[in-house]
Amino acid sequence: MTFWNSFMLIGLSAVSIPIIIHLLNRRRAKIVEWGAMRFLLAALASRNRRIRIEEIILLALRCLWVALLVLAMAQPLVTRQSAIPWPLVLPTVLAAAILGGIAAAVWANRRWRWTLLAVSTALLVLAGSASAAEYLAQKERWSSDGAARDVVLVIDGSSSMTLTVEGMSNFQRAVEEAKAVVAACKPADAVAVYLAGSVPQGVIPSPVSDHKEINAALDRLSAPGGTLQVLEALKAATSALAKGKNPGKKIVLITDGQNLGWDLRSESSWQSLAAALRQVVPPRMPVPQVVCRTLPMPKSFNNLAAAGITLSRRVVGTDRPVMIDFRITNTGTSPMDANGVELSVDGALPMRQDVPQIPSNASETAHFDYRFERVGRHVLTARLAARDDMPADNTSVFVVDVIEKLPVLIVDGAAAQEDLEGAGGYIALAMAPRGRIMRLVPDSAGRPGTPWRSGRPGLLLRPGKGTPPASLVPQGKPAGPKEDDDVQYLVEAKVVHLADVRAIRDFSEYAIVVLANVSRLPKEQARMLEQFVRDGGGLLVAPGDRSAEVAADGSVKSFYDEWKTDAGEWICPARIAERRVVNEYPAHLAVKTFSHPALEQAADSTKSDAGSTLIHTYWKLVADERDPKVRVGGLFEGGDPFLAERHLGRGYVVMTAMSLDDRSGNLVTRKCFVPMMHQLTYYLAAPALVDTNVRPGAEVTIPLGEAPDAPVRRLAPGETIEVVTPSLQRLGADLVGSGADLRISFTGTQQPGLYRAILPASLRGRPATQPADEGVPFAVLGDAAESRLTVLTDADVDNVKRHLGNLIHAKQPDELTAAIAGGIPGQPLWEYLAIALLIALLAEIGLTRWICLQRRSHQVETVSFGAETVDIQTFRARARELLAQRTAEGRTVSKK
């Protein structure tokens, strides 16, 4: 506890006034010994004890109200981050005053007098020392050197800041407190303003001294949404401090204190920030101070949050419906009814679905089946009809890029003449069970693409050559050639023999390449395939009996074990160790170990028959799982890897332990085989697709799809590419590249929501830009965890202080302004002391009146000796009564 007017504490010496008055008026009566006195001694002793107790209470009250008056005039403050608690200081001072009064009341007793005075003095010294120590500590903490400063205001603009607390949103409260900080700054102080969210935005990127300009900029602010990234915001503020010219440096962060985005576990990032702060000032100057103001959060609130839209597969075509899942989470403190959810596609009439009441901290998912009828980009918008405290998170937007065809090239290492004689045929039929399978041979010019044999929809078999496995026959459709030209299919599988792969000069026209039982690739094609994967293409390696050579001693030599990049990095995720032949006791797939996303459906034992698969021969793979780019996605029951993956560049290489045909086992006859191949296809093809849903701060590139031989396109004078943000702002975008690589580049993805790129007329009309009437859409995704209001704890703040030693955690507005203007913030106590003073005065007046009534000091007694005829007994009784009354009156006078 400290005092605004510490010099007023000198007035505590006034406590001695009632004591001095009491001592000066303490007169002794002249004692006259007379015979009847001895009969009254016993009565006088008893009455004397009662009078002393009354005097002790009365003097204690008089000293107490004097002390309360002085303390109220000194204006004590209770600091919120005090090292010495106020209940130690204030009661100590009052107790010292009370003990002083008691010492005066028992002045005649020397032992009690000096004991009480010594304790009272010790208490005053203790209280004064504690108050002085607290004052010095707080003065050092909140002191201002008076020099001109550069102040960077960082205002949290995350989605949670839109929550209304006590009739005002926290974002509005943050803007008002930011204005208070500007008002507390001196005219020479320079201020910069940053709006922090998923990406910090420099509203006033460099410190300026024009406070009117700063206030005008603050009035124009609006919350962009997203999640506050504290480290990125403080790094941007540190860069702004470096641009300032004043010697003093401060960063003020105003936030709601949600712990999401603080990244408290990243020790190296906080150490890097601390080092950057030290570099802003000269070596001998103090490190810039960081003031973190945390705004109040509600203890209870109602909120349903749109947790995002997901699709049942990453690659979507017009061939069949896709399941769209809309997840709703109750982040509030009480159960809520969603009142239904709506899903609209391209703004059309929405589909509606009811969901049950959602308990607190629980989730529900609404499922929609939808088939897209048009190729191109489509906007999915899901909305909640609930009325809650955070309407900003009631909508989710997702952009779907619907493709027409997914081209897959399968390199078959076996010279099969029939579709089901090699692994390539099984893989092709699994990817497109009723599609066309193309076997390609080089044409006269040496270019691949001339169909050696084109299959009709269905399975093509020569008469008498058997029937396909049941898993590859579509239900309800007969096996065999049958026209069905009205049905569209997404995957277009093309098979080329290994002998013809040298003619391929470009793999970029395919989304996936499959090496089915391939022994070795030509060097040039291996190099091109490596670059194909780095650019986002997918590679599936299914080794068979031709893929490796087994020596007499059991050692294995394989092309895949030697396939490396120029930098020495492995291409394949695993080495081929040995050939396993288990005809007598076939191996089984351990579906419980399937962790790869492409094996998710096969891992569901209630819907998949993968557990009944019998494998007779496979390769034992050895994967280095210490490599962060490698993972094993599934095992055999014996513990050998069934599937492994490597992340290479933007794409993935997936390797199975067996060739996907009927020579290795009966996997191709299981019902799970077709879904498994489709999931692998979609997974491997996804990185090559245009990413139309990005995280805040990511760069968005929109390819325009021009022909490879198109000339370099430049914007004509007056032409611009604008991007309309979710807040309807218009920002510029760049046109980069040329020819087939012509694309739009945009980096202003700070705000979650739907964006549209508006193209000039000369750039419209391409398939990749349809529909161009409303602009090319893309979405910036938010973080569903932003709706969970988990507040920073004191332990979290202490963790930050370990790295940023000069950190002040301001929990109240006066602490924030004190950190800028100086002074000691705290809660004043003078109002409570004034009330206590009034109570003490009333108690003292009441006690004085009561004592007077008891002693009858306000009454006049008339003594009448009566007539001579009064008998002696009556006279003696009246004499005793008169003597007792006069003795009491004399004692009262002596005390006063």
Describe the structure in brief.
This protein has about 900 residues and is of the alpha/beta class. The protein contains 15 helices and 41 strands.
Please give a structural write-up:
By secondary structure, the protein is an alpha/beta fold. The chain folds into five domains: 2-143 and 827-855, no CATH class; 150-298 and 789-821, von Willebrand factor, type A domain (Rossmann fold, 3-Layer(aba) Sandwich), CATH 3.40.50.410; 304-403, Immunoglobulin-like; 406-458 and 489-546 and 571-688, Rossmann fold; 693-781, Immunoglobulin-like. Helix 2 (41-74) runs antiparallel to helix 14 (830-855), helix 3 (86-105) packs antiparallel against helix 4 (110-142) and helix 7 (230-243) packs parallel to helix 8. Residues 435-486 have low confidence and may be disordered.
From the structure above, extract its key features.
single chain, 896 residues, alpha/beta, Rossmann fold, Immunoglobulin-like, 5 domains, ten-stranded mixed sheet, 28% helix
